[in-house]
Amino acid sequence: MAAGRAFLGAPCSSLATGARRLAFASPPPRALAPALRRRVPCRCVASVSSTPDAASASEPYVLTTPLYYVNAPPHMGSAYTTIAADAIARFQRLLEKKVIFITGTDEHGEKIATSAEASGRNPKEHCDAISSSYKMLWADLDIEYDKFIRTTDHKHEGVVNEFYSRVLSSGDIYRADYEGLYCVNCEEYKDEKELAENKICPVHLKPCVARKEDNYFFALSKYQHKLEELLARNPDFVRPSHRLNEVQGWIKSGLRDFSISRASVDWGIPVPNDTKQTIYVWFDALLGYISALLDDGEQGSLQQAIDRGWPASLHLIGKDILRFHAVYWPAMLMSAGISVPDAVFGHGFLTKDGMKMGKSLGNTLEPKDLVERFGADAVRYFFLREVEFGNDGDYSEERFINIVNAHLANTIGNLLNRTLGLLKKNCKSTLAFDSIAAADGVPLRENVENLVYKAKHHYENIFLSSACESVLEIGNLGNLYIDEQAPWSCFKKGGESAEKAAKDIVIILETMRIIAIALSPIAPSLSLRIYTQLGFTEDQFRVLRWEDTKWGGLKAGQVMMEPKPVFARIETETTEEAQASSKAAKGGKKKSPSKGLVEA
Question: Where would I find the Methionyl/Leucyl tRNA synthetase domain in this sequence (predicted)?
Answer without folding.
Answer: 197-420
